[in-house]
Design a protein that fits this description.
transport, 69% helix, membrane, flat, MetI-like_sf, mainly alpha, 300 residues, MetI-like, ABC transporter permease subunit, MetI-like fold
Length: 300
């Protein structure tokens, strides 16, 4: 039986006791798998492990070599470019689509399914599909040239300067529907009285969205931002399927660099160092979000 305080209520420690007991296996698994293996990875990033991990410490040599690698620096630049484009365009397009569907248009369910369907595909399938679509021999370029515009050129996957924009197009096609659904769920939680009041006051719909609705959706925007950003940091399958990191190394990303070092070059120490930098990036994203969400809620 749960212990009670002087007021007759269960003490905080024993509230929802059954739920806390049920969560113990999950907590232990998370601690062992995530915390334990993360610590193991960080530890071995300071070693010169090659084919097999070994505790032969070399200090920060792996990190110095990492940041001196042109391939790693290019992968970071590509990730920043990919991340900025994804965050800006996925949120803008996703929010506009969510606002459109929030008008309760006809065949809303059909449109929502069509827009969300690409998210059900794997990144490998998406990469292959868009590799075909952007192929100059039978993709967009070939179709438009067949319509009479012989000088039209659109071949991003074979141009190192713009190849990442081809990857962004494929990622937006797959991920924008997911952003739309999250924001639409937030919009459906807005009280109808707000819309009635804005119509009575003669406030245009766009101004209501911008000045009233968007601030109310801050928690939804923050949560969506964290989910999308975590996916951006981990992007791998799409790049491998669509470009293979090419042409040359112009579309390399950090996750592919880690894979290449650990499994192709058999350099575990270098792969662990790159993994640690990716883990640090995710921590920089997650920790402020957790503080704002849960710390702010407790203060409230």
């Amino acid at each position: 039986m749960a212990k009670t305080s002087a007021s007759g209520r269960p003490s905080r420690l024993f509230r929802n006791l059954n739920a806390k007991i049920a969560a113990i296996p999950m907590i232990l698994t998370a601690c062992v798998v995530f915390v334990g293996f993360s610590a193991w990875t960080i530890l071995h990033s300071f070693t010169k492990s090659r084919l097999l991990p070994k505790l032969d410490f070399v200090g920060t040599a792996q990190y110095e070599r990492l940041w001196a690698s042109d391939k790693w620096l290019i992968s970071i630049q590509n990730l920043v470019l990919f991340g900025i484009c994804m965050l800006v365009f996925s949120f803008v397009i996703g929010f506009l689509l969510a606002c459109l569907l929030d008008q309760k248009i006809r065949f809303e369910g059909m449109f929502r399914t069509i827009l969300l369907y690409p998210f059900a595909l794997s990144f490998v399938v998406t990469g292959v599909i868009w590799q075909w679509i952007l192929n100059p021999d039978f993709g967009v370029q070939s179709i438009i040239r067949g319509m009479g515009w012989e000088s039209f050129t659109f071949d991003p996957l074979n141009n190192g300067r713009i190849v990442m924009f081809g990857v962004v197009i494929a990622a937006l096609w797959q991920g924008t529907g997911f952003v739309m659904v999250l924001l639409l769920a937030g919009l459906r939680g807005i009280d109808d009285e707000i819309w009635k009041a804005s119509r009575v006051d003669g406030i245009p719909a766009w101004k209501t969205y911008l000045l009233v609705i968007v601030p109310m959706l801050r928690p939804v925007f923050v949560t969506t931002l964290v989910i999308v950003t975590a996916g951006i940091v981990k992007v791998y399958d799409l790049v491998v399927a669509q470009t293979g990191g090419g042409p040359g190394i112009s579309s390399e990303v950090p996750a592919k660099y880690v894979y290449d070092q650990m499994f192709l070059n058999q350099n575990l120490g270098q792969g662990f160092a790159a993994s640690t930098m990716m883990l640090l990036t995710v921590a920089i994203i997650i920790i402020p979000w957790a503080y704002l969400e849960f710390g702010g809620r407790k203060r409230g």
